Amino acid sequence: MLYPKKTNFHYIDIRVVTPEEMSVPELRNDVVSRLHDIFADAPKHSFALAFPEYRGQFLGDIIRVFGIDRVLMDMLLTQMQHHFFFRDYTDVSPINTVPEDFKGPYVSYERYRVPNLRSNEGKPHRREKRLLKAKQLPHLKVTSNGNKKTFLIPILMIEVDGKTPFTPNGYGLGSSANKIALPYV
Questions:
Q1: At what angle do helices 70-82 and 24-40 cross, to 10 degrees?
Q2: DSSP letter string over 119-167?
Q3: How far apart are CA 151 and CA 139, in angstroms?
Q4: Is 1 inside a domain boundary?
Q5: CATH of residue 157
Q6: Vertex 70 angle, CA 168 and 140, to 5°
Q7: Cβ atoms of residues 153 and 142 within 8 Å
Q8: Name one GO biological process term (predicted).
């Protein structure tokens, strides 16, 4: 497992620039879907997502992509610079490096899961509680590349210590069982 040192974190900010016919959430969802496609072609656990403007039910119009491999970050930036969607609908920053003396805090952006009915037999109250909480969280709306179904990914941001492995899922997120400590810069 990769345990990044503070000096190993690099990040790119992607600010959505909304045309009149699209909203910030629609465009942000499209950005995340396109990033997911790019992440699928990279080595596993290469990139993690952050939402530096996360407040209440608002994810904001900036998506921050973290990585610990500078070469992969360079490749990601090049792909975005040559892709019409990122050129036309986003402002992409150069690659930034987290300062060596960064002392925290660290946060994890996790996919908040609601158990399905089958896995939650005998515990209906647990599912109901998690459904209520999920409705209060900001979310992404994405479409699966496999079955083409659209689904919501509720996002929970929590403060964590800086000693977790860098193992984001295919969408660049952590989970309740797999926290990803990202510098809150």
A1: 130
A2: TTTT-HHHHHHHHHHHHHS-EEEEE-TTT--EEEEEEEEEEE-S-S---
A3: 10
A4: no
A5: 3.30.70.2540
A6: 35
A7: yes
A8: maintenance of CRISPR repeat elements
Tokens of 86: 């990122």
Beta-strand relationship, 96-97 and 139-143: unpaired
Amino acid in position 116: N
Domain span holding position 109: 6-183
Q: Are 40 and 49 in contact (CB under 8 A)?
A: no
* Amino acid (1-letter code) at residue 154: P
Contacts of 132 (CB under 8 A, 6+ apart): none
As a whole number of angstroms, the distance between CA 138 and CA 133 comes to 10
| Number of domains making up the chain | 1
Which H or E run includes 24?
Answer: helix 24-40
Listed as own residue / partner, the contacts of 96-100 with beta carbons closer than 8 Å and 24 or more positions apart are 96/10, 96/11, 96/12, 96/13, 97/7, 97/9, 97/10, 97/11, 98/6, 98/7, 98/9, 98/10, 98/11, 98/183, 98/185, 99/185, 100/6, 100/7
CA gap 148, 33 in Å, rounded:
12
Rounded to whole angstroms, the Cα distance separating 85 from 104 reads 33
pTM: 0.89
User: pLDDT-derived band of residue 17, with 50, 70 and 90 as boundaries?
Assistant: very high
